[in-house]
Amino acid sequence: MSAFLEQFEKLKLFNYQELIKLDEIAVQNKMAGALRAAAIKHLRTGKGVVAQSFRGEYIASGLDSSYEPFLDKQAKSGVWGTYIEATALAEMTGCTLVVTPVKDGAAQDPICLYRADNPNAPVIKLFNSNNTHWYVNSKTQGDGNCLFNAFAQAFQQEAKQESATKNVVPAKEKTVVSATSVATAPVSSLRTVQNLKAENSVPAKEKVVVAAAVPTTPKKVTTPLSKAKAGMFHHTDDLQAKAATQQKAINAAIQKHQTAAELQKELEDSVTQERLRLQKLPLRERKLVKQQIEGDYKLALKLALEEVESAPVLNSSNKKALSRRSPMR
Length: 329
Hints:
Elements: H1 3-10, H2 16-19, H3 24-45, H4 49-54, H5 68-74, H6 83-93, E1 96-103, E2 106-107, E3 111-114, E4 123-129, E5 133-135, H7 146-167, H8 193-200, H9 227-256, H10 260-280, H11 283-310, H12 316-323
Parallel strand pairs: 1-4
Antiparallel strand pairs: 1-2, 1-3, 4-5
Helix pairs in contact: 3-5, 3-6, 3-7
């Protein structure tokens, strides 16, 4: 079992063998709520650099639990999921996360939000349309839980791919018998020693030499393509070219981003230096710096909550519109 599937099983969210049997809508309905709860739990108690940074553990002055109101709000079903929960899910499952913003239907440059330490870790690829809808494809439901629906789809795709790879049985190799292999081949698969002796006693003229059939290459018959077929091939070529360009951009985004271990070391070094600096300050200045640091942290949480508040309120009409939105323009 791969590291991804082992981690997925360890989280005790779902059995991956059950997961791969569901259709895309069913897997969203089944997994979204559990993924939301798991992300909130990880942010509250997880040991990874994302979770610890969220809780302010790399802030030199320390921090109170001012993040709890944010977690309480984000734990509710139907509340817009932010990049904070997205990176938490990536860290929790050991996946690299890349998001492609989509503005007015046009895909922008992809952004790596989390880079796993394992270079062979699965890469979760999501789209974010105008900060109103996270999705993998047109089947991602826009029901307020779209971030977690999209992750459910992505995890299912990865589980299916790894399961298929694991269950592939290589085709049996064809046995080619050459003249030089006669001496070492099993007796049951070749002529017996007696037959060989009998054959060697036949005069040369009477021996029948059977040559291996040499397949002839049939002449290629070319027929002019209809305009419809030609257009179809050109369209396929365009899609493949776009996919290749997108993948190249994703790879570049990942390479630019620090791994989780690199980020953790940087933060640890930074907090150590900051603590030493604070110790040298007079008590009054130290309090002022602490207040400024806490103010910056709370502002970041406030901005995240404003993102949540600005997300569209879903009703019966725009739910359908969002759930039908196509990821490729």
